[in-house]
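Archive transcription. Copying these from loose printouts into the bound notebook so they stop getting lost. Printout 1 of 2:
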Amino acid sequence: LGLGLSENAVECDLPVFEDAARWLDIYFSGRDPGFTPRLHLTGSAFRNRVAEIMLEIPYGKTVTYGEIAGRIARERGIERMSCRAVGGAVGKNPISLIIPCHRVIGSDGSLTGYGGGIERKDALLRLEKAIK
């Protein structure tokens, strides 16, 4: 492509892209990659905390929006945190596969709120054997 690049621009491989490609290859083979490619989160402190919590959700497992809200409430020493606020932060996830927002489900086990579509969320959770 190179649109807008100077003639002196040099194409090179970057380790971060190599890591991401390796992660994706392992993931789509139906296995836990066992590592997270290097990420640089740039959102608000709240959004970044939600992303960090999502990164802790094990491959093949799910958590609810309410569980994330409860954890943040405990960390902040407050009685409650809005599940909707958590849902908003989950929905703004810029790297929706590597930061596994597809593993966040409704309190009743329903597959809700996935930007890639519920069918994709279902397929990803089935790939991970998180649902049958």
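Printout 2 of 2:
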Amino acid sequence: QVMRFVADYQRAHQEAASGKLGKPRIVVARRLARPYWSAKRPRPFRVYGEPIVELSIHDFDVANWILGRPRSVLAHGVSGSSGVTEHAMVAVEYRDGSAYVEGSAMMPPGFPFTTALRVQCDAGVFDHVTEFRGGPIPKTRSVRYTKRGLESVPVRGHDPYTEECRHFVRTVHRKADAKLLSPNAERDALRIALAARESIRNGRKIDPPH
């Protein structure tokens, strides 16, 4: 659940929840990486899950955080030399919106690890991109589009792991909302990932269990 404590993702949720941009309707998320395994260092997918689980589960959780309970999942994917789906496009339907999640572990050499999140609401859009181009500080961009035009959204960064630990301590002392750390949220995100995997294998829409 660490993405819920990444500053730009927190800001995206705030933009959607505040109502200033209207009701959130569409979430588009990307998480693009080069293969993080090799012939010398194979990835034990049975332990960590396939890329659609290990990578995209974070974005499924963020989509649920913004749009609510998922209703159906439809996915298409491309298998790589590993024998598992290494690049997937997943459409998740909600009661009042949709999420489109792209997850890849088959980007070419030199392609920067990239995460992106766009939240489209009735009256505006929040758009964020982070690229890890090497070095300790990634390149980030967060903007807002409304009838007033393009606006840069300054976001003060922080260590998300530290923030998550602080929130846990505050929750123990009943000074913070425990729902942000709910294991049920991770379970629901995992259910979407597993439904997406099943959809790719069977070629049909899947209704995740509730």
